[in-house]
Amino acid sequence: MFAAITAARRGVSVQVLEATKKPMRKILQSGGGRCNVLHRPLSNPRELSEHYPRGNRELIGPFTSQFTQHQTFQWFENEGVSLKVEGDGRCFPVTDNSETVASALRVAAQEAGVSISVGTRVTKIQPHNSSNNFQWKVYVKNKRNAKDGVLVADACMLATGSTPAGFELAHKLDLNICKLMPSLFSFRLQPGHLLEGLQGVTFANAELSLLENPVQGQEGRTTKSKPTLLNKQRGALLITHRGISGPAALRLSSFAAAHLFDCRYKGQLRLNCLPGMSIENIRQELLAFRNKSNKSLVSGGASSAYPFRESIPRRVWQNITKKVINGQCDLRWNDLKKEHVAQLCQLLVNIVLPFIGKDTNKEEFVTAGGVDLKEISLKTCESKRYKNLYFGGEILNVDGVTGGFNFQACWTTGYMVGAAVSSHLNDGAE
């Protein structure tokens, strides 16, 4: 839609072929129905590119000189979509309604003269060499018409929407498709984990790491004495009824998507409740608290003070301490032994959480993988192999973490395609 609007405003006749009855379904569903249009404009494109597990280096140029975050923000404001920036940097329409964004795009497309054909599925595209130019034959099937139709286009752009159709069309053209896999999902934990029963509890800032599975030797013996960290992410976490979610978990699922896919979403996570603190600093604070509050309950009770209460939710602290003191709920700090303090230190930074699967995150739905970026020109998103064939958005091997970054990649690549197509066709007309 964004590419169509960009090209149509520059005088190109554009037709959008939409397989479903209602276009922009992802926009309507995103952000819990609020649509996280973009992330607040960052100071430089390199900082922005760090939020893309795939495509981070390649996007620096487009984010710098093609269509920036500032331009995105201004574009929607100019279309009547007033945006607000929330504390975590996410930008939403002030209406908190994704229909505001979808409606603005529909109106912009209509006013620019874009034709939108809904219920029209593209079944195949193939090059069509005419006497005047290199064109494309687009084979379509309309739900209202049992017969197949064929359109001839001077240029063609592929995008995925919510289906794998775009990937399938690209594959039929023998383009290199990087392995497709889920990204941005929460983790389903094995029953019996330390956080079980704490659904709804949140960490404002914790560190979640993916542990490499110990390598099994002969007779099932492990050949690694200590698992290594494959990836770690810091941020807010949410304990769910089946596992763990929140920004840190979603980021981890995104940056470690390939490994998680290969291990079939089974392994171990490590939760550090006090990121940035050393074991020695934690030990010193625990000892200082013990000396100050020696008659208080170690578990913290219902309302009494406990260490690190600004970082660790009370119910999590209670679960941790119960494990260390073997459920002695009446144990007081002056009875706490040195070995208990040592165990607390270790557990506060190293809670092992076995996971046995992934859960769909209701607000995000992203596919990692897609058309290899080596297949396209990074200045225009045009295929290097096929003239006048373009790609944009999620069909490319580009994906970002939660927070509006995936939409930004769509706005930028969509603008690039629209601008490139209009420039090429207008030059040809001249």
Tell me the layout of helices and strands:
Layout: H1 2-8, E1 15-18, H2 25-33, E2 38-39, H3 45-49, H4 60-66, H5 69-78, E3 83-85, E4 90-93, H6 98-112, E5 115-118, E6 120-129, E7 134-142, E8 148-153, E9 156-158, H7 165-172, E10 177-183, E11 185-189, E12 202-211, E13 229-239, E14 243-245, H8 247-255, H9 257-262, E15 267-272, H10 279-292, H11 314-324, H12 338-349, E16 351-360, E17 366-371, E18 389-391, H13 405-429
Parallel strand pairs: 1-5, 9-18
Antiparallel strand pairs: 2-4, 3-4, 6-7, 7-8, 10-17, 11-14, 11-16, 12-13, 12-15, 13-14, 15-16
Helix pairs in contact: 1-6, 1-13, 2-6, 10-12
| Global morphology | elongated
Enumerate how many helices there are, as a single number: 13
Report how far the terminal alpha carbons are from each other: 26 Å
Total number of beta strands: 18
Q: What about the largest sheet? A: 6 strands, antiparallel, barrel
| Helix fraction by DSSP (H/I, runs of at least 4) | 25-40%
* Second-tier CATH architecture of the largest domain: 3-Layer(bba) Sandwich
Side by side, the strands of the main sheet go 11-14-13-12-15-16
Structural account:
The structure is a single chain. The model is unreliable at 215-224 (pLDDT under 50). The strands form 6 sheets. The chain has a 6-stranded antiparallel β-barrel with strand order 11-14-13-12-15-16. Strands 2-4-3 form a 3-stranded antiparallel β-sheet. A 3-stranded antiparallel β-sheet has the order 6-7-8. It is 32% helix and 25% strand. The chain has 2 domains: 2-181 and 364-429, FAD/NAD(P)-binding domain; 185-360, no CATH class. It contains 13 helices and 18 strands.
